[in-house]
Amino acid sequence: MAILGIDIGGSGIKGALVDAESGELLTDRKRIETPQPATPTAVAEVIKELVDHFEWTGSVGCTFPAIIRNGVVHSAANVDKSWIGTDAKKLFEAKTGCNVTVINDADAAGIAEMVFGAGRDVPGVVIVLTLGTGIGSALFVDGHLAPNTELGHLEMNGGDAEQQTADSARDREDLGWKAWGKRLNQYFQMVEFLLSPDLFIVGGGVSKKH
Fold this sequence. Notes:
The protein has 6 helices and 13 strands. The chain is α/β, with parallel strands linked by helices. It has 2 domains: 2-105, ATPase, nucleotide binding domain (Nucleotidyltransferase, domain 5, 2-Layer Sandwich), CATH 3.30.420; 118-208, ATPase, nucleotide binding domain (Nucleotidyltransferase, domain 5, 2-Layer Sandwich).
């Protein structure tokens, strides 16, 4: 079964048709710059543009960098604050006329890893961490997702872990890979102590760089 997958990010919004059975892309990705400010109305226009680009009338899956409950946005760490309280599912469906599912972006990455990737058939506790503008997390116990864990916002050194260890922090502070790796290792050790995972899976935008 084909669906249109759309990833809403801080710098770009990307879409492609995907085979939901195999996880394979059926088309090249189409990327559109994220509008600034990335308000709900502005982002919805881009979602509509992607739907029109692919001439799509079927189901759409959207990933979003925030806590999502029943299609409603409940946080805004790396997106415009006007998203809080917005029913993203209803907004996108009204704009596109398609059936839309909206979930947290790291949870979506985690599901993909558990079904098609490194987490497939792995029992116990699996944690997927995505390193980019922020730190996204997905927690699985025996293959079952505990959604919206937001482990990037754990307290570390008296502050928000994400602000110290995300790839954006490495860029902002011009850290070398070794110095950044030490910070990241401290964060991994903290998460490991709290949850004792059987497997860490690490991905996100930083995986393209090193």
